[in-house]
Every structure is written in structure tokens, then in C-alpha cells.
Amino acid sequence: MRGSVCAVLAMAAVGSSVAVMGALRDFPVFAGQGFRFALAAVLLLGVLRLRSASPPRGAVSSRQWVRIGVLAALGMVGFNVAVVAAERDTDPALVGVIIGCAPVVIALVTPLVNRTAPNRRIVLAGLVVAVGAAVAQGLGSVGSVVGLFFSGCALAGEVAFALVAAPVLSALGALRVSAYACAGAAVLCVPGIAVTGGFRLPDTGQLLALLWLGVVVTACAYVLWFSAVGAIGPERAGLFTSLVPISAVAATALLGTGSPTWGHLIGAVVVLVGLLVGLTAAEPHRAAVGEAHQG
């Protein structure tokens, strides 16, 4: 139950980003992402510092550092840059639909990693929530091949965000993984800033948007998300990513900048049905998720 609540709160926080993204439409991508991840890293490392009186959970191994680096590169920086690049050439709704296939991919790939058979009920639930998310946001129109390519890259990043972190969570905890990954992501943004030459100070509106992204959508949401992955596993946690378009609609409705349609409501119902199907499935084998099996 705790893991499911964490997943819902995490996706609600991510969906709330729709309220501030408009302010960053013309802001340099790598600079914005770098600020966001750096702020989150400072906050999370500060929390770790305050908790330093408690016994440490052990040193970080080289294999764990590699996983954290891949998580930062693919699941964080890579995902966000790919989404921005995809939406330049493809309808944002279609980009969302492609990324919305993540629950299905996670449900199929996780058993391959763990060398077990796929849980048919969770795969079915992944298909249902993906359909629900597509209904909620619309299919959009087909864009260019480049746009579809970057949409696929974003999907890969979304899958990596769940799978790569899972094996280290039991050893390091959600807070440490989030803090170290955010710090790594901030560093990875520096070459992008240097290559693109895209750096400038934000104005007041952009600064407020970046603060929201850094504190709520990154620091808080990432700790909640990794707590969920550690508690219920990547297969079940992945189902909750379908809540993002629904929480985005809810955020715009609360702000008075949008109103739900029948498509949104029907999509929400379908997603909820899919979640019920997946969360009541038998517990999948999760041996590979424990760090004790990582050597």
C-alpha cells in the first residue's frame, strides 16, 4: 500500500509540471535541466547530511556507481532532452502515447532481466493503462521520422528510470539514489550547455518554474518514485506512469487553465481499471531486484 501511495504522489508531482513548462518554452534546455537537477541534488544531499548521525547503509560499490551514472544519463537527462527534441517534430500527444507504452515494456523486460516468465496479468494491466493514457491525451498526428526516433529514445529513458535503479535501492535507499543521480545529471548537463552555448539567467517567471521543477517535480517526486520501485517492484510501479497525463489535466483544471473532457474522464477510468488488474496480480519473482544478488 505504501509503495502504491508513493507512486501516485510521484506521478501527481510529475503531472503538475504542465503548469510551469510554458514559462520555460524559450529557455535553453540543458541550462534548465542543469539548474533543476543541481537544485534537487543540493536539497537531497542536504537532507542526507542532516541524517548523517544515523548509521550508514554501506559504501557505494563501483557497480552501483555505474548504475547511478546510467540512470542519470538515460533516465533523467536523456529522457528530458529526448522529449523536448521529439516535440519539435511530432505532435506532443503522440509523444505522450509512445512514452505511455512504458508500463508494457517494463512488464516484458523486467522478467527478461530476472530470467523469469512474464506475469501475464501485469502485462495485460500494462496494455490497459497504456490505452487509458492514450485515450486521456489523444493520439495526436504522426510527425517526422526524427520526431518518432526521439520519442522512442524518451520511451527507453522512461523504462531505464525504473529498471536501472531497482537493483541498488535495497542497498542504498531511495534518498541516496535520488541525491547521487541528481548530482550526476547536473554534471552531465554541463557539456550540453557548453556545446549548445545555451546559458542565460532566468527571468522571474522562469526562475519560479525552475524552482517548482527542482523541488517538487524532481527532489520530491524522485524520492517518492524510487521508494515505490523499491517497495512494489518496477513492474507494478511502471503501471502508475500512466497517471501522468491524467494528473496533468487535473493540474490545469485546478489552475483554471483547462477543463476535463469526456476523453480525459474515460481514459482515467480505463487507467484505474488497469491499475486494479495489475496491483491484484500475484507477486512476481524479484530476486534480481535485491542488491544481495549483485555481487
Features:
295 residues, mainly alpha, disordered C terminus, 11 helices
Describe the protein in words:
There is one protein chain. This protein is an all-alpha fold and 295 residues long. The protein has one domain (2-19, 27-48, 61-284). It is 74% helix and 0% strand. The protein is built from eleven helices and no strands. It has helices at 2-15, 29-50, 62-89, 92-99, 102-114, 120-137, 145-163, 166-196, 204-239, 244-255, 262-279. Helix 5 (102-114) runs antiparallel to helix 6 (120-137) and helix 5 (102-114) crosses helix 7. The protein is globular, with a radius of gyration of 18 Å. It starts with a helix and ends in a 16-residue tail after the last helix. Residues 2-135, 165-277 form the EamA domain. Keywords: Membrane, Transmembrane, Transmembrane helix.
Rough outline: globular
Q: How do the helices and strands follow one another from N- to C-terminus?
A: HHHHHHHHHHH
* Strand proportion: under 5%
In helices, the fraction of residues equals over 70%
How many discrete structural domains?
A: 1
List segments where confidence is low: pLDDT < 50 over at least 5 consecutive residues: 285-295
Tell me the major beta sheet. Answer: none
- Helix count, per DSSP? 11
Quaternary state, please?
single chain
Please count the beta strands (DSSP E, at least 2 residues each).
0
The overall pLDDT average reads 84
What structural class should be given to the helix and strand makeup? Answer: mainly alpha
Q: What distance lies between the first and last C-alpha atoms, to the nearest angstrom?
A: 30 Å
- Rg measurement, Å: 18 Å
Keywords: Membrane, Transmembrane, Transmembrane helix
Transmembrane segments: 29-48, 68-86, 92-110, 122-142, 148-172, 179-201, 207-225, 237-256, 262-282
InterPro entries: AA-Vitamin_Transporters, EamA_dom, EmrE-like
Organism: Actinokineospora spheciospongiae
